[in-house]
Write a structure and sequence with these properties.
The structure holds two protein chains of two kinds. By secondary structure, chain A is α+β, with helices and mostly antiparallel strands. Chain A is 16% helix and 55% strand. Chain A contains two helices and 15 strands. Chain A has helices at residues 2-27, 168-174; strands at residues 33-35, 38-39, 43-49, 52-57, 60-76, 79-86, 89-94, 100-106, 111-118, 121-136, 146-158, 163-166, 178-180, 183-192, 204-206. In chain A, the strands form two sheets. In chain A, strands 3, 4, 5, 6, 7, 8, 9, 10, 11, 12, 13 and 14 form a twelve-stranded antiparallel sheet that branches. A three-stranded antiparallel sheet of chain A has the order 2-1-15, with no helix packed on it. The longest helix of chain A is centred in the first third of the chain and has 26 residues, at 2-27. Chain A is elongated and about 55 Å long. Residues 8-27 of chain A have low confidence and may be disordered. By secondary structure, chain B is an alpha+beta fold. Chain B has helices spanning 2-26, 120-130, 154-159, 250-261, 283-287, and strands at residues 49-62, 65-68, 73-79, 87-90, 102-104, 138-143, 151-152, 165-174, 183-184, 191-195, 215-219, 224-234, 242-243, 271-282. Chain B starts with a helix and ends with a helix. The chains are: A alpha+beta, B alpha+beta. The interface between A and B is medium-sized, with 25 and 29 residues.
Chain lengths: 207, 289
């Protein structure tokens, strides 16, 4: 009787250990910023311009021809972290053209960022995102109204192309969301990542 | 005699035709999705947007009576240019800015007990009208002030903060015994609803309630904004005593209604919750369709 109970408890413990390892594998070890394969020490500025970027409220897509960013990065306590300090956006327009973009800009900068691993892929999580957009246009249903896009964004990092890609799939995987009020917003963007200060022209990777 | 009567007949016909003409002029025949703005004063100076908002659910708690919204209520009209985010209303061209849609009061006013000192006639009438399941009571929301007193803030509506819709209303209680002038609230003493899609700020001791900004969607190539399933809430409004209930017997019936509903009812004791789908467009878009 006692040995049977011991076997049951042992099996339970083994199952828990197995489950624990599965969870830790999916959550992943904290990734770090690396230049030429070496973990970054100190800080570095990453500057880039989106290869493409658009923001979609259901039924209306706003595209910016020039979507720049400046992110300060570091490895702190073994984890890649950072903060987006600048995010200038230029030449923005909507798909139909009925709504014009009178003003657009990031608010409440800097936005903290950190790296995370999910299912062996590396992601960049941007927190505290807040972008204000003022639309205009005689026929634009949202004219004269400044909307605020708020939330958290998760993008997939590719070491091969040295880019971070944000789309509905990466948002779902990272459990992040951008919203205007209660309405979910889709953000599609591909951002090259490149060291700008101490590590120019060095391969930037995450791992 | 006959010759005299013909011009009168003709005059009457002319009047009817003219009236019909006026009626037709007050409604614009917009097409497709924009037909919902047929009664927006879209050509009136100062109107820059049109709104059509239909409340299909929710409830109004007035004192001790809870009335679910089971029949759709429409708010429609024009909107001014925004000042500090707020837009004031312009009345709908058909005069129905807020539709007078009756909502049945569950249980009617069953259980109503006139004061002991009431005359036998009042007791008998109360028993006949209130203790009869066939004679229910309807509650109809009506505007207590001109449409220009309604204020909409679409930014607050979407962003779930601040007052999204300020609505001065009165509640019309309808029942054969109550007569046609039984109201809670009036033009001089309206029920002021400062509705929010965010979180309410009721008096101490009353739990705050949370609204919902709804799901926004652009249709018709960004020219029409649909916000569906917004939940507008407010539980910081007070209600005065009822007035005009029971016609000539109002001096007896008003106190009965007050006692039954718990009026006057202080802020925090009442609640409004409106589940609403709204459509917004600029007058340029509306007039182009």
């Amino acid at each position: 009787m006692r040995s049977k109970m011991t076997r049951v408890i042992l099996a339970g413990v083994l199952a828990l250990v197995a489950m624990g390892s599965v969870f830790s594998a999916s959550a992943g070890a904290a990734p770090q910023w690396k230049f030429n394969g070496t973990a970054l020490t100190g800080t570095e500025d990453i500057v880039g311009a989106a290869i493409s970027s658009s923001l979609t409220i259901p039924g209306m897509t706003t595209t910016c021809e020039h979507f720049l960013y400046n992110m300060k990065i570091e490895n702190a306590a073994g984890t890649g972290k950072g903060s987006i300090t600048e995010l200038p956006l230029f030449e923005c327009h909507t798909a139909s053209g009925k709504c014009t973009v009178e003003a657009i800009g990031a608010k409440k900068l800097p936005w903290p960022t950190h790296l995370t691993t999910i299912s062996s892929n590396q992601y960049l999580i941007v927190e505290g995102v807040e972008v204000g957009i003022l639309y205009g246009g005689a026929e634009c249903a949202l004219s004269e109204v400044e909307i605020l896009v708020k939330g958290t964004a998760g993008g997939l990092i590719s070491n091969e192309t040295e880019t971070a890609t944000f789309n509905s799939s990466t948002f779902t995987t990272t459990g992040t969301k951008l919203k205007v009020g209660a309405t979910a917003i889709e953000w599609n963007g591909v951002f090259p990542t490149e060291g700008f200060e101490w590590h120019r022209e060095q391969a930037l990777s995450v791992g | 005699m006959r010759i005299k009567s013909r011009p009168r007949w003709l005059m009457a016909l002319c009047c009817v035709t003219a009236l019909a003409g006026i009626q037709a002029a007050s409604a614009s025949a917009h097409t497709g999705e924009f037909a919902k703005f047929n009664f927006c004063p879209s050509t009136t100076t100062g109107v820059v947007k049109c709104i059509n908002s239909v409340t299909t659910g929710g409830e109004v708690v007035l004192g001790t009576k809870k009335v679910p919204i089971v029949n759709p209520v429409t708010i429609q009209g024009g909107l001014s240019k925004a000042t500090g985010g707020n837009r004031t209303f312009f009345a709908a061209t058909n005069g129905i800015t807020l539709s007078k849609t009756p909502q049945p009061v569950p249980g009617g006013l069953l259980g109503i007990v006139p004061p002991e000192k009431s005359p036998p006639l009042v007791k008998a009438l109360s028993a006949f009208f209130f203790e009869n399941a066939l004679t229910g009571v309807n509650s109809t929301l009506e505007l207590a002030k001109p449409a220009s007193e309604i204020v909409l803030n679409e930014v607050n509506l979407a962003l779930e903060e601040g007052v999204a819709l300020k609505l001065p209303v009165k509640v019309h209680l309808e029942n054969p015994f109550l007569g046609s002038k039984c109201f809670v609230g009036s033009e001089s003493s309206p029920l002021i609803w400062n509705l929010t899609t965010g979180t309410t700020t009721p008096p101490k001791g009353t739990e705050a309630i949370k609204g919902f900004g709804g799901e926004a969607e652009f249709i018709e190539e960004e020219t029409l904004l649909k916000i569906k399933n917004s939940k507008l809430v407010e539980n910081n409004w007070s209600a005065p005593t009822a007035s005009g209930c029971g016609g000539i017997l109002s001096f007896l019936v008003n106190p009965i209604i007050n006692s039954m509903i718990g009026l006057p009812s202080a802020a925090g004791k009442n609640k409004s919750e409106l589940i609403t789908t709204s459509y917004l467009a600029t007058t340029t878009s509306v007039n182009n369709h």
